[in-house]
Design goal:
Length: 363
């Protein structure tokens, strides 16, 4: 485990049966196989993926795997696994947002492959990052590592560290590949963890070599900050750190705002307010402004929000007079970690400017 990390999650697979509160099953049909929950078992201290020759889902073979129900942010992921020598199988320890029913779909943003390996060349581990929400889809390759051992003969430890500027890949604790990139190169949306094996290697699995199996001894996730959760929402309320206004009078209003909190207003036509969050990780966030209840007639019809984000600055105009009370969406933007992003509000028509909370919801 790289320095500075603490354990944030683990399943040691030491129970009897797959923990349904922790894992979904891979159930897609892809390549040469259909994936079935029936092929996954936890017993004897490991999670076993059984690989079979059977007719199911229009395929002649079945594989499977588990996908974490929870999302993960940046961190260090590790497993200990014994692979298979049966030909035709593609096994991976990897991340992608999803529930196991498909590897496609619009929910996917980023994929980080902690290892992928094909059983026919199973000593060859390949690594990379896929960015799925761009056109064209991009693939940043860390290259590969050729192990001197046979991964099907015994268990070995496989780990990868993922941050907003680097991925590092480890085998048996040894750093084998380092891939650096600018913090703005990828959208670092949270991901689910996949431990899976499917028939995917030409010319396909061979029934004479089946059944076979893959075993995983554990799945562990380490984080730099145990207080950060992947779904974190950062809210900056008025008078909290990160909130600022123009000089001059900003009286406290009798109108309440976010969670019944107090709010401020200004009638100065040159007034501005700004909110600067301290974001736990780089990635895409939905930005929302809290529109104060009951303030309609005094509010700006063309309130102008300037959102400073990783890709530059965007201007968003909202009619707060006709908007409902509560959270008003300002759009989704990519941010770097820390205090580099902000939202600044001016009221171009000189009406009241009301300042309450702005929140940043991790996508
Ligand atoms: Ca175990
Ligand atoms: Ca408030």
């Amino acid at each position: 485990v790289p320095a500075g990390y603490v354990l944030g999650f683990s399943d040691e697979f030491n129970s009897s049966g797959v923990d349904a509160t922790v894992w979904n099953f891979r159930t897609d049909v892809k390549g040469f196989s259909a994936q079935r929950p029936e092929n996954v078992a936890v017993a004897g201290g490991t999670m076993r993926i059984n690989l079979r020759a059977e007719l199911f889902g229009g395929k002649r073979f079945t594989g499977g795997g588990v996908i974490s129900k929870r999302l993960f942010d940046h961190g260090y992921f590790e497993t200990r696994a014994r692979l298979t020598a049966a030909p035709g199988w593609h096994t991976a320890f990897w991340t992608l947002r999803g529930d196991g029913s498909t590897t496609g779909g619009n929910q996917r943003v980023i994929e980080v492959d902690g290892f992928e390996t094909d059983s026919v060349r199973r000593h060859n581990f390949f690594y990379g990052i896929w960015q799925w929400n761009t056109n064209p889809v991009t693939h940043a390759d860390c290259g590969s590592y050729n192990a001197t051992f046979d991964p099907a003969a015994d268990f070995h430890v496989y780990g990868f560290e993922w941050t907003d500027t680097v991925t590092r890949y480890f085998v048996d604790g040894k750093l084998v590949c380092t891939h650096t990139y600018p913090a703005t190169a990828h959208d670092h949306a949270p991901v689910n963890l996949w431990l899976t094996s499917i028939g995917y290697v030409d010319p396909g699995p061979n029934a004479a070599t089946l059944p076979a199996d893959i075993q995983f001894d554990y799945a562990r996730y380490y984080t730099r900050d145990p207080n950060v959760v992947a779904d974190s929402t950062v809210t900056v309320d008025n008078d909290e750190p990160g909130y600022a206004t123009s000089a001059g009078a900003w009286p406290t209003s009798t109108l309440t705002g976010y969670q019944g909190s107090y709010t401020r207003y200004s009638s100065d036509p040159k007034a501005w307010a700004s909110w600067t969050p301290n974001l736990p990780g780089a990635g895409r966030y939905a930005v929302e402004y809290y529109n104060v209840q009951g303030a309609g007639a005094n509010l700006a019809a063309n309130a102008t929000f300037t959102v400073a984000h990783a890709g530059g600055s965007s201007s968003v105009v909202r009619d707060l007079r006709s908007a409902a009370a509560g959270w008003v969406p300002l759009g989704e933007f990519a941010f770097v970690a820390g205090t580099g992003g902000s939202v600044r509000l001016v009221a171009a028509d000189g009406r009241f400017l009301r300042a309450d909370a702005v929140r940043f919801v991790r996508r």
